[in-house]
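I need you to check the entry underneath: sequence plus fold tokens. Let me know what the token row says about the fold.

>
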Amino acid sequence: MVTFVTDMSDFGQAPRSVRVMIVDDHPMWRDAVARDLTEAGHEVVGAVGEGRAAIRIAAATRPQVAVVDLQLPDISGVEVARALVAPGEDGEPAVRVLVLSASGERQDVLDAVKAGATGYLLKSAAREEFLEAVRRTAEGDAVFTPGLAGLVLGEYRRLAAESGRAADDAPRLTERETEVLRLVAKGLTYKQIAQRLVLSHRTVQNHVQNTLNKLQLHNRVELVRYAIEKGLDRE
């Protein structure tokens, strides 16, 4: 997602079961990831080694999160992410994508985010960090391996500086929606925003969803980029 979670500070919360699909062409790695997810109480609805098969299976099994490697034998993980996150009628992504890759290269990260991936984690991540990332991704948080979040935010700021979008071309947001958006842009999670504003977690989610609808954006990653373009992360 759109808050950039990098410290994984919420360990210890009661886990919520998530429907997950794994897309990786290494059978032993797929098996290990599936085992970790199952032991953590999640439901693995598919584990496949090819991108096109993943797209077909996702349509039938409707996972909440797809854990996708970038290097696949038929099409790239970026192409898979782009196909999986195509929004439905409610504007929400059909599937949230968490890239799990050995590559931390700048272009790989940016390509994945531009394709709609909610998060990007390196395969060197610890088991608990990965499981927390899956949970966060299901909730819509943008979860990045520490160091990669700064890269993505820096790119967004660069694009914002180049775009020169006018400040008065945006739909009107309520004062509360703007306040929530400002905190999202600063990297706070839903839980942190709720605590800061003395609101329920659900109320914060509703404000974010209303803002996405008004701005005609598809996910929280796009929302962070929009907020940075408007300079809300600096206020």
Observations:
- The first helix runs from residue 27 to 39.
- The longest strand covers residues 43-48.
- The chain has ten helices and seven strands.
- Residues 1-13 have pLDDT under 50 and may be disordered.
